[in-house]
């Protein structure tokens, strides 16, 4: 090929539109058994090799500029998305701001954070403890939001089995900002007796990023069992949820948060469960139990107890493959 022809073909290739992004990726917790590195470059390399379009990942402490450049180049070359995983600041926001600034340099599109790492009904033993957590959370959010605004990187706060749908909506109204909203987890609030679509509809106006998942439920003496299951096989109306969130934020990404583990016990028929829910009443319990009884699992809930590590890894890989196949069929690429 002569030089003119080469330049002509190169220009034509350059002008070709890049393939549309695949909106679907993974969180590190989707690999609860495998436990790969959670840091951005290493995690994105893994999920890209699986055919995903990106995911949520952390940054190493004090990353050097060369690492940040590697992350950005990998993301841009492969047309991926990534969203920063970082804790909210405590009393000093220095580390939080450094992580946000570095993530922006490395091509992150948003931030995902949480207020509580555990579960409300297990962590707190009194209403006073819960109220202390609420005050602390407000202080941490008040530190984080101005930093997200300063660096123009939206912060999504996850409903992490802590806040009810009403409480989270109140948070977003209080800290009203285009750079502060929700990382909507499709299934977590079943544990707080919110229906999945009720939660998604309440938080849709504030959506920044997501944890997409499907859930199955089953009664047990103290309440009900709750499990993540392959997309399309549970009780969440995924097509409706996806359409609703895309209507509010057309380029929202869907990061799978599929934990392969034993079912969680939601002990909503015990006294301790209700200690931190002064504003919930019998309607929530009756509605949740009716939902459980009307949706008996189609097959046994996933369990890893009793499996060898190899068997558990194989189960996890099979479930993730099923979820990826569902996403490819049901999640169209992002708009150019």
List descriptors.
336 residues; alpha/beta; TIM Barrel; eight-stranded parallel sheet; 11 helices; 11 strands; globular
Describe the model.
There is one protein chain. By secondary structure, the protein is an alpha/beta fold. The chain has a single domain, classed as TIM Barrel. The chain is 42% helix and 15% strand. The protein contains eleven helices and eleven strands. The strands form two sheets. The protein has an eight-stranded parallel beta sheet with strand order 1-10-7-6-5-4-3-2. A three-stranded antiparallel beta sheet has the order 8-9-11. Helix 2 runs parallel beside helix 3, helix 4 packs across helix 6 and helix 7 packs parallel to helix 8. It is globular. The N terminus is likely disordered.
Number of domains: 1
**How many helix segments?**
11
Structural class: alpha/beta
CATH topology: TIM Barrel
Rg over alpha carbons: 21 Å
Range of strand content = 15-25%
Mean pLDDT: 93
What proportion of the residues is helical, as a percent range? 40-55%
Q: What is the highest CATH level, the class?
A: Alpha Beta
Multimeric state: single chain
Largest sheet: 8 strands, parallel
> Which consecutive residue ranges, at least 5 long each, have pLDDT under 50?
1-16
């Amino acid at each position: 090929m002569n030089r003119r022809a080469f330049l002509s073909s190169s220009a034509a290739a350059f002008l070709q539109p890049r393939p549309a992004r695949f909106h679907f990726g993974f969180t590190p917790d989707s690999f609860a058994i495998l436990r790969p590195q959670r840091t951005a470059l290493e995690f994105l390399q893994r999920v890209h090799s699986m055919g995903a379009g990106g995911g949520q990942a952390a940054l190493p402490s004090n990353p050097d500029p060369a690492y940040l450049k590697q992350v950005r180049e990998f993301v841009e070359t492969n047309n991926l998305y990534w969203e920063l995983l970082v804790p909210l600041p405590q009393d000093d926001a220095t580390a939080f701001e450094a992580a946000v600034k570095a993530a922006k340099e490395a091509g992150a599109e948003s931030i995902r954070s949480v207020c509580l790492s555990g579960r409300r009904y297990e962590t707190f033993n009194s209403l006073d403890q819960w109220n202390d957590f609420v005050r602390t959370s407000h202080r941490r959010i008040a530190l984080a939001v101005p930093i997200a605004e300063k660096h123009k990187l939206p912060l999504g706060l996850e409903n992490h089995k802590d806040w009810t749908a009403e409480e989270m909506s109140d948070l977003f109204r209080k800290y009203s900002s285009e750079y502060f909203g929700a990382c909507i987890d499709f299934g977590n609030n079943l544990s707080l007796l919110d229906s999945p679509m009720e939660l998604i509809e309440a938080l849709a106006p504030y959506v920044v990023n997501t944890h997409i998942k499907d859930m199955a439920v089953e009664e047990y003496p103290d309440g009900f069992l709750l499990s993540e299951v392959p997309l399309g096989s549970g009780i969440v109306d995924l097509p409706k949820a996806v359409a609703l969130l895309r209507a509010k934020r057309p380029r929202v990404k869907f990061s799978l948060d599929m934990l392969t583990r034993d079912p969680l016990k939601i002990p909503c028929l015990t006294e301790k469960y209700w200690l931190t829910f002064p504003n919930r009443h019998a309607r929530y319990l009756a509605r949740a139990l009716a939902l459980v009884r009307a949706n008996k699992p189609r097959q046994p809930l996933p369990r890893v107890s009793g499996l060898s590590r190899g068997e558990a890894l194989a189960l996890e890989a099979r479930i993730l493959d099923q979820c990826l196949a569902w996403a490819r069929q049901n999640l169209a690429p992002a708009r150019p």
